[in-house]
Amino acid sequence: MPHAQTAVLFRTFFAQFFISESVTSDHQLRTAAIGVLTFLVTPGFLLPIQLSAPFEFAAIRFPAMLDPLIRLMATLFITYGIVSIGVIAAFTWDALAFDRRDAMVLGPLPVRGTTIVAAKLGALAALLLSGAALVNLMTAVPFVMVASNHTGGVAAVRHFIAHMAATMTAATFVFSVLVTMRVLVGMITARRELIASFVQFALVSAVLCFVVLAPTGLDVVQGRRSEARFFIVAIPGWVPTNWFLGLYEAIRGASGPEFRPNAVIAVEITLASILVAILATIAGYRRQLQLALTPSASAASHGSARLRRALARLLVGRDQVARATADFIVATLVRNRQQQTPIAINAAVGLAMVVAGLARGAGDVTTLFRPRTVVLWIPLILAYWAAVGLRASFFVPSELSASWNFLANAPSRTRAYWSAVRGSLLALLVPPAAMLALALGPLVGWRLAAWHALFVTAILVLLAEWIALTIDFVPFTRAYPPGHAKLKSRWPLYLLGMFAIAVWPVRIELRLLNNPAYLLQMVAWIVAAALVLDIVGRRRALEWDMTPPEDVPDGLSSVTVLSIASAAARHV
């Protein structure tokens, strides 16, 4: 009977990685998960194919460079496996430990804690093996074919085994560390949502930055035969990936005094991380179930959250309905992980864009101390992508069962809700971006940084007014419509918006730096455009419809049953 219950819980826990309470269609969420896996697999599959010519060139002209080139590429693929499993963990972060649904469903049931923990650990292992194996297998096959083209079949097989062993071991180590972090964060009573969102932002940023920076690890210049040469970036010895590279080389049969000790270290730290993750899951089981049902209510009253709530109330004026709604929007966003996820992911996209721009224009360090587009656009591009995520978060519901309060008390015609949305956007976007613009002072000079902060503020006010025009309901009070973002078809519009907000205005600003009068005039025109949008938004606000869409299913129409009792009855 315990084995049957474990099997049922295992299947449920594994399916829980691909479902969410915030969307109306689990199929749409699974489709998005498949898209994420496709994004992770594609770069790793194409990179060895693109490097087939350099490998052939090295094998024929410079045989002594072939092993260093293989080690460099193996390090890149080990790193790629690490960041890929990090992204998988980021997208399934809430389900890596016990969440509110687990506490509500499993808490009252007469099921042993050992059965629940065993099923959870099995689901985590299945997620690790399925995700890491898919990503690393798609990199191993083309890499082995390219790197072992001039060796025998036995060497190719050993190369394949070494690649899979090293990448899977590295992925297991990182995944175990992230599971341990998730358990520890779940046992924190305060600011766990902020910590979780920061970890998610860091993991998604890592994989995007890897995709951007990986091609710079190898530079092959092919001219005439006398001029053909290699530039291989050496990997420092202190980097942890060298442990797993040692395992890779030890299995592949390469000679080197440092490989075997590093291989032993890789195996030892991986086994230790697995043991720590298991013990942390067992030890934190009861504590997580308790805290999952008691979310922190003080998250919105700490530090910057309190200041942003006050600023949002100040921006909406004396309207009490608008002030209460703005306070609700900011507080909900600070307290809930579901609303923070789109912001973290889109901010990671913005950071990857910044890294790509800096890497493309990399040169002497002194180039960062000159006013350039890749330097001055940093606050705007980060704020733009954060704004994209913030708008997407408005469509993610918080507590649908509590939205009746707005339906019951919403005035028939009012500008209060539009004013609250606009004020919340300004309070959440403008202060961080303006402070970041001022932080560029040591690089470009404080006078220019002050002008740029004023310029960034004007641009973001215009952006906030534009976003407010696209919202016609109180945020977080409606079920998320499947496929709302439509990134597959609308990504050119997002890129066009990035150029319109972050690139072209900065280039115009650079041309006007020597003429403050023209720069101030440009800021005035931007503010005038924002005022026009404000007038349009005030008129459209009277057309808001507070009635929810009729096609949103209620909670009773899609109840999932664990069938633990029937599974136990079959074994009585």
Write the layout of secondary structure elements.
Blueprint: H1 2-16, H2 26-50, H3 52-61, H4 66-91, H5 100-106, H6 113-147, H7 153-186, H8 192-213, E1 218-221, E2 229-232, H9 241-252, H10 259-283, H11 285-292, H12 303-316, H13 320-335, H14 337-360, H15 373-376, H16 378-394, H17 404-409, H18 416-438, H19 441-444, H20 446-469, H21 487-511, H22 516-540, H23 564-569
Antiparallel strand pairs: 1-2
Helix pairs in contact: 1-6, 2-4, 2-6, 4-6, 4-7, 4-8, 4-9, 5-11, 6-7, 7-9, 7-10, 8-14, 9-10, 12-13, 12-18, 13-18, 14-16, 16-18, 16-20, 16-21, 18-20, 20-22
Provide keyphrases for this structure:
71% helix, 23 helices, mainly alpha, single chain, two-stranded antiparallel sheet, globular, 2 domains, 572 residues, 1% strand
Folded structure, characterized:
With 572 residues, the protein is an all-alpha fold. The chain folds into two domains: 2-12 and 27-292, no CATH class; 303-548, no CATH class. It contains 23 helices and two strands. It has helices at 2-16, 26-50, 52-61, 66-91, 100-106, 113-147, 153-186, 192-213, 241-252, 259-283, 285-292, 303-316, 320-335, 337-360, 373-376, 378-394, 404-409, 416-438, 441-444, 446-469, 487-511, 516-540, 564-569; strands at residues 218-221, 229-232. It has a two-stranded antiparallel sheet with strand order 1-2. Strand 1 and strand 2 form a beta hairpin. Helix 16 (378-394) runs antiparallel to helix 21. The longest helix has 35 residues, at 113-147. The chain is globular, with a radius of gyration of 27 Å. The chain starts with a helix and ends with a helix. Residues 218-233 and 551-558 have low confidence and may be disordered.
